[in-house]
Every structure is written in structure tokens, then in C-alpha cells.
Amino acid sequence: MTIRLGVFGLGDTACAWAESLAGRGAEVAGTVRTAEKQARLGARGWEVACFERGRALPEDALRGLTHVLVSIPPDSEAGDPVLDRALDRLREPTVQWVGYLSSTGVYGDHQGAWVDEETPLRPAGSERARRRARVEARWLALAGKLPLHVFRLAGLYGPGRNAVEAVRAGRARRLDAPGVVFSRIHRDDVLQVLDASLEQPRPGAIYDVADREPAPYHEVVAYACELLGVEPPPLERLEDVDASPALRSFYRDRKRVRAERIRSELGVELRYPTYREGLAALL
Known about the structure:
Blueprint: E1 4-8, H1 12-22, E2 27-32, H2 35-42, E3 47-50, E4 67-70, H3 81-85, H4 87-90, E5 97-103, E6 114-115, H5 127-140, E7 148-153, E8 155-157, H6 163-168, E9 174-176, E10 184-186, H7 187-199, E11 206-209, H8 217-228, E12 235-237, H9 245-252, E13 256-257, H10 261-264, H11 275-282
Parallel strand pairs: 1-2, 1-4, 2-3, 4-5, 5-7, 6-13, 7-11, 8-10, 9-12
Helix pairs in contact: 8-11
């Protein structure tokens, strides 16, 4: 049977996965927010519609889907536009698999301790994380009615979005907050997790998607500089810099994400188990 993939939110990661599946014979349909992007992706032979909370899907768009990926983040206090405006597309009898891209931000601050899919969520320190947790809970409430799979992604990096590019562009900073580490994941490892879930669907499953070495961002920048053969920017104490409230709240969100379920249930072996392999490959 031909896969007819519907993607709500054709961002970089979702586009990369859709392109990969299209290369294996899948039909692709999806949504964007601008006419320019609609025309650009439509030129690939994809069915592309404009959609957001204030603009409903055309009645005949994204019908007859077999697999659905939702990568639109919460759009406001109002919540999730797919849940509120397009849930009927996911309830069609042809739909066999639904994936929702969430974030490990839903865990909140655990003072640097390890977390996994069984860890209670406590995203009190960030409004963005609280919003994400509320929307994720709404999706999980549909797990018995939809073939739903939730993927909690760690900090995403990949082509065009990584520490090597930040150093090259002169945007990289090395901020030190003692005890603060971040988990991350290469885009291509996200794609192989999604592929594995398609092959081995487990409706109702939640998967953390993170590599095997949480690390401070200043160490990642230093390694990118080492790869490029340049001097790293100076190490600055977070408490001494003029950082935005959003950035400060990000650095208060301390946890290490253990992502063993993608290996034990899906058999995924990460191509880039740490940032070192990932950055070297990107370079």
C-alpha cells in the first residue's frame, strides 16, 4: 500500500522526513503558513495547503491520509490549531499512524537529574514549557481514539542549525551556568526514529529522542571551534551578561534526558550518539 503522508507544519525536520519518504514512493501532503512556501514545496509535486488558526484548511485538502505527522507547536494560549481546527483529518478511517512532535521541555527543571518517559512533568519555570505540556496532554487524551505516538525531542541541531554554523557566523557565545547541561539530538536521528516507529507502530507510546551525552553548550561551542581550527569565544558567566528572561529561564531548566526506549522498543542505534560525531559529520 502506498503511504499518503500528511504533515501539519512542514518545517525543516518534517520536510526532511517527507522528502525521504517521497524518495521511497510515498505521496506527501502538508501545510504551511505562507503562499511563497506553498508554491516552493508544491513544485516538488506535493499537495500543500496554507493553514493556521485564523485560516481553515480547504475542504478537500489532506484527505485520505494513511500517516500523519503533527509538528506545529502550540500557537498561543489558545492551544493547538490542529486539535482545534483540523482533527477530522486524523479521524478518517484510512489513518494508521499519527505522530506528534513534542519537546523534552515538558519535563521542566529536575536540578540536573536524569529523566525518562516515566518521569513526572513539572514545567513550572517556563510559560512555553507549560503551554507545550498542556497541549501534549490534550493529544495524549486522544491516544485511545487515534493511533497516536508522541516524540519528545531534545535540543534539535542539524544542517544549517548547529554550533559550527554559529561559530562561522560569529554568533556563538559560551555562557557558563554551573551544573547546567543540555540534551540534544541530530535531525537525521529524529528521522530514523520516525522511520522505526512507522515500521513498528505502538499506539499510545511516548518516546524521548535525545543523544547519549548531555553537555553544557559552551563545551559544544568549544568543540566546534576545535573542528574549525579557531579560537573559541571567551567563557562568560551567565549571571554577568545581559541575557533575556527567556534565555535565563532556559538555563534554569536543568535535566539530563535518558532515551533508552527508542533503542529497546524500536531498535534505533543513533548515527550521532554525541554532539562530537554530529558536528564532525556536519562539518
